[in-house]
Structure formats: structure tokens, C-alpha cells
Design brief:
Largest sheet: 6 strands, mixed
Oligomer: single chain
CATH class of the largest domain: Alpha Beta
Order of helices and strands: HHHEEEEHEHHEHEHE
Strand content: 15-25%
Low-confidence stretches: none
Number of domains: 2
CATH topology of the largest domain: Nucleotidyltransferase, domain 5
Structural class: alpha/beta
Radius of gyration: 24 Å
Length: 250
């Protein structure tokens, strides 16, 4: 595990031991070794499978390499400032931006969406809260579904949906997972996309500020779903910023 001091395996509390190991100078090797020791323990107990030390060694150091690749910082690399703005990527159809959010303690899950035409004119919006939910995946899937329902109610079948969750997009574009916890909701969204001409596109959070406002607005509501024929007054400034093509630094 990368430790030469035998006192590291003293009788300290497990929580302190884990904290010290995962924040010390050998944190990567510590975390990888604890993980693969636990995995191997489960394989022996549940599957009667016993790995060689060389296989364990290989898996541990492969994980360490992954950690180093993910977290290394190139001190000589200059940060390249980028400027972005909300845009419709030249789509000539209706655009809807959706987002989910968590606020407060206890947590309240909110969601929201804004529908625009290709000329960036506000068409409609929605917001609301979801009771007893702390899973952002469910909130974002539910938000996409509500956006599609709104489009259908307005007889809009040619639609581009922007969301800043690439995980949701990959889940909806990928093969159906029969045993996924949200399989019914996922299938409802997929069925709606098939019936209409709907494209799912990723967007950066900085490009999704208006709908982030709507999601937080929804989290503060006591209404499970509220449609906005005109935008809330506090949203107007952000809408004007997006319509004017304001650039944001990232």
C-alpha cells in the first residue's frame, strides 16, 4: 500500500484510518488497494473465486494509473479562456432547454424548461418540484419528459432538446436497459422521441442559465407542475442577455 511505517496499521478508528490514508501522500495507491481488497474479498466469499497476487497487483496499479491520468495537473499548461453564449446551433425548428436542480435542507428537487423558436423568441415554459426525490438522474429524465409533453400539447413535433446532462443523453440514445430503476420513464421518453422528430443535444451549464433559473424557481414552488405562458419577471433579464448574444467566460 506504499506505507513503510507500521504504526499506520495501529488501532485508530476505521474512519480516521480511511481519512488519513485517502488524504495522505500515498492516497492513490491506498484507495486503489482498499477497493481491490474489498472486491477480492467479495469474490472469495460470494463466488469462491481466488485471484493471484500478481493479478491483484496489476488491477491495483492500473487503477492508480487511471487516478493519475484523471487528477494530474500540468503546471506548465496555460489556461485557455473560452467564451460561449446561448445559441440554437443554427437549428430552424423549435428549441427547448431543460434542467433539474436541488435546493435547501431538507432537499427539494426542482425542474424547469423554456421553449424558444428559431429566432430566440420565448414560446412557453414550465417549472415544478418533485416530492421525496434526491436522485438528479430521475429529476433530469422527468424534466425531459415534461418538456416533450409540453411540445406535444402545443402540436410541436419538430424539436431540439438541450440539457447539460450528457449521462441522460447517452442513456436515452443507448440500448434499452430492461432492469434500470427508471426503465418505464426512460421508455416513455424514447417512445415520444420516436413518434416525433426530436433531437437530444448536450449543452454547457453556462449556456443553460435561463433554464437553471426555472429549475431553482420550481424547487421553491409548492406546485408539482406550473406552465408559464409568459416568463417570470425575474427571468426577463437573463432572457435578454441570451437574446442579445452575451458571452460568458469559462
Amino acid at each position: 500500500m506504499g506505507f513503510n511505517d507500521a504504526n499506520f496499521f495501529s488501532d485508530m478508528e476505521v474512519s480516521h484510518w480511511l481519512k488519513e490514508g485517502s488524504s495522505g501522500p500515498h492516497s492513490f495507491i491506498f484507495m486503489a488497494t482498499v477497493w481491490w481488497a474489498w472486491r477480492h474479498h467479495n469474490l472469495m466469499c460470494l463466488s469462491n473465486e481466488n485471484w493471484s497476487l500478481s493479478r491483484l497487483f496489476y488491477n491495483i496499479y492500473s487503477m492508480v494509473d487511471s487516478f493519475i491520468s484523471c487528477f494530474k495537473i500540468n503546471a506548465h499548461a496555460d489556461h485557455v479562456e473560452r467564451f460561449i453564449r446561448w445559441n440554437n446551433d443554427n437549428y430552424s425548428c423549435t428549441i427547448i432547454n431543460v434542467d433539474g436542480s436541488f435546493l435547501g435542507n431538507p432537499v427539494r428537487a426542482g425542474f424547469g424548461g423554456i421553449m424558444w423558436n428559431h429566432a430566440w423568441f420565448y414560446l412557453s415554459g414550465f417549472s415544478g418540484y418533485i416530492n421525496d426525490s434526491s436522485d438528479i438522474m430521475y429529476v433530469e429524465l422527468f424534466t425531459i419528459y415534461q418538456g416533450l409533453v409540453l411540445a406535444k400539447s402545443l402540436n410541436i413535433s419538430d424539436l431540439v432538446c438541450y440539457i447539460d446532462s450528457l449521462r441522460c443523453i447517452n442513456l436515452l440514445k443507448g440500448p434499452t436497459m430492461r432492469y434500470h430503476v427508471y426503465v418505464v420513464l426512460i421508455q416513455d421518453v424514447k417512445d415520444t422521441i420516436r413518434q416525433d422528430n426530436v433531437a437530444l443535444c448536450p449543452t454547457l451549464r453556462e449556456e443553460n442559465q435561463c433554464v437553471d433559473f426555472m429549475a431553482k424557481f420550481g424547487a421553491g414552488l409548492d406546485t408539482k407542475l406550473l406552465y408559464h405562458a409568459s416568463p417570470p419577471e425575474d427571468l426577463l433579464y437573463l432572457l435578454r442577455m441570451d437574446t442579445a448574444g452575451t458571452l460568458y467566460s469559462i
